Amino acid sequence: MTPELWREAPDAGPGIYNSIYTGPIVDSHIHLFDPRRPQGIPWPPKDDAIHRPTLPANYFAVSKEHGVTGAIAVEASPWHDDNFWLLETLRDDPRMRGFVGNLVPGADDFLPTLERLATEPLFLGIRCGNLWDRDLREDVRNPAFIDGLRALAESGRSLDSANPDARLIEALLEIAHQVPALRIVVDHLPGAVVPADQERTFLHNLRALAAHPGVFAKISQIPVNPGDPVQVRNRLDTLWELFGEDRCLFGSDWPNSLHAAPFRDILGSALRFMRDRSAAAKTKFFSTNSARAYR
Fold it and tell me: Which pTM value belongs to this model?
């Protein structure tokens, strides 16, 4: 396939998707936070352009006209109590399908908090990876961490990753081997940072990871104006080849994505990537695969 994805300027308004896909869209990756809280927020920093209230109403104000009917929030805070702030923030909006929290498997508070959250249908899983000064490759060497992931799998919840690189994919592959019952959602794969000398290892491990049927690829952070469109298109086509139409799902990364482009442009890149796929594949990618990944 050719890099035609970036050769058309996105339309304004709902026309951006009418000619490609007309069904409902579930955004599997947005962040919610409110810096007006007395305790503030750990991210984004005060000098960041997105350091402002981003709540469900703010998100749907910009996404609803483009066909978005639901969204999944991914925790953007390492603070334990923010799992419950996020739960209460989305509880009263039926368009919010659930949230991915932030707990540390193996920590003293992990199992009690998991047991408490497991009673909440809106709690979909946790995220671990290259964030908050954590190193998943080191974590997987800790038996208590692996035991925590087994408890996560037994609860029916999934594991999201964060900020992929070759080392993270290696760690996720180890997790898939040790906890085969755990569903894994690999976030932001189009934006993975992989030096040229690690590309072969990265692809080898990614292919091995994709061989596990419970691993999903979140197609988020698609570059809107890439320096090398051929390279990015090849990455996208490789992800589709490895994970297929049943295990790829759309995520916008809003409002973090606003650093790159408005929401309509972010969605536009995903729509153009899917332009030549079948109607069934589009429905899976933009809607039903998120339900399969997060149940």
Answer: 0.93
